Amino acid sequence: MHLLMGLTKESGKGRRAGASRLFAPSETGLLRRVAVGDREAFVALYENYHPRLFRYFVKMLRNEERAEELAQEVLWEVWKGAKGFQGRSSPSTWIFGIAHHKGVNELRRKREEVVEPERLLHVADPHRGPAEAVEASDLARLMKEALVKLSDEHREVLELTYYQGLSIRAIAEILDCPVNTVKTRMFYARQKLKALLLAMGVTGGTS
Amino acid sequence: MSREREISNGEEHREVDLLLPWYVNRTLERHERSRVERHLAVCALCQKEVETLQQLQSAVILSSEEIPAPSPAGLERVLARIEADERSKKVQQAVWWAELWDRLRATVLPPPLPAWRLVPVVATVLIVVQFAAIVGLVGREYLGPVSYRTLARPPEGIPSRSPRIVVVFQEGAPESAIRETLLVLQGNIVGGPTHQGAYTIEIRRALASPQEFERILDDLRAKADLVKFVEKVY
Predict the structure, then answer these.
(1) pLDDT single digits (tens) B149-170
(2) pTM score, two decimals?
(3) Which of A84, B16, B43, B140 is a good FRET partner for B154, with 20 to 30 A between their CA atoms?
(4) A188 touching B (Cβ < 8 Å)
(5) Torsion angle of alpha carbons B45, B46, B48, B50, nearest 10°?
(6) How many CA atoms lie within 13 A of A8 on its CB side?
(7) Regions of chain A with pLDDT less than 70
């Protein structure tokens, strides 16, 4: 729980309320330094974004190996494209915009291929029944299992909101869609999650 | 707006409900946050939903954090790629400059000739140089105006109303002897000395006849120790 509290602060409240004022300009500064070939600045950006991008891709693709490759691809594009960063959006919005584009392309490509079952990341036990689930006391853990069953679109909007701690407008920019689309996509993700939790025997979930 | 009216306002509830996920992650704009907080104060359903969304947030974070950390070797791979890219850029730049130089050379300078083709070029150059030398050294005697002047030729620009002579005195002739001769002669130096040491002397007195002029010349020629050369100016 302590871990969760810390991460929540980093990815949610802290990033928005206080830390963003301190860290966002610093990230913009880092990007400007990267634009002129400063490798030290690039390493700092890499260390901040690589784990976040890796987990974003793992959840999206369920393939660690490919997630690692794509995370590096994104950061490589950050190195190459930092000169083109105009500062109209935050660095995280810009970087996750690149990541989203790459992830969507990868999913499109994957749908055309036969997915190797052994390469899928094992997150939830598909044989676990509702009765067994009901016995679990940790609602968050049940939600985690339900999250795996969401569509890519629904899971991504939850991921960008709660793990990456992004605003509605930043997400709209990343997904290249109107703000209202983000709101309704999140609404249907919650509805779907509620239905999944009900199927697991959890009542009184989302509205 | 009263509490009862707000609760009954289904439209407001729906709109606030759409904002709740970002109220939980604290990324709403200030006016949106105020709106949500006003509604939360009177809506038990939304209060419950906020709690659920907070659990959902924890679940999302947990599901992400359970994923093992990526390999630290990734950074080295990206840095190696950057290094290789930089080297490649330098090579490309060098190639670009070399190609530019080649294009300039091909445009501005003629292509280099093989050795055997240089023979007629060198021969032509030698012929031209020789021709120029011939014209310069020999040809001017035939082609250009002759610039030659005798010692007896009157100097240009000096009118010759009185009789004039040209005299070259002996080397080392004393100035007193020259002076005495000029006084006897009643002559004025009106020209010279030239590079050959010739002086043009005008005789101030009128001469009775050409024979007298010849006699004066003979007298001067007789002073061999003083006068080296003397002649009339025509």
Answers:
(1) 555 555 555 554 688 899 998 8
(2) 0.56
(3) B140
(4) no
(5) 170
(6) 18
(7) 1-25, 112-138, 203-207
Q: What's the CA angle centered on A166, arms A164 and A167, to 5 degrees?
A: 165
pLDDT bin (cut points 50, 70, 90) of residue B234 is low
A89 phi and psi, to 5 degrees? -120, 175
What is the pLDDT, as a whole number, of residue B53?
Answer: 93
Sequence-ordered strand ranges (E) for chain B = 164-169, 187-191, 198-203, 227-232
Residues 6+ apart with CB under 8 A from A165: A10, A11, A12, A15, A16, B25, B27
Looking at beta carbons, which residues of chain A come within 8 Å of B64? Answer: 55, 59, 159, 163
* CB-closest option in A51, A55, A161 to B25: A161
Question: pLDDT tens, B44-81?
Answer: 999 999 999 998 898 888 888 888 888 888 888 889 88
Q: Is B49 on the interface with A (CB under 8 A)?
A: yes
Question: Are residues B153 and B234 in contact, defined by beta-carbon separation less than 8 angstroms?
Answer: yes
DSSP E strands, B1-131: none
Residues A34, A23 contacting (CB under 8 angstroms): no
pLDDT of B145 strictly over 70: no
How far apart CA A173 and CA A181 sit, in angstroms, is 11
Strands B227-232 and B187-191: unpaired
Interface confidence, given as ipTM, is: 0.71
B47: three-class secondary structure by DSSP: helix
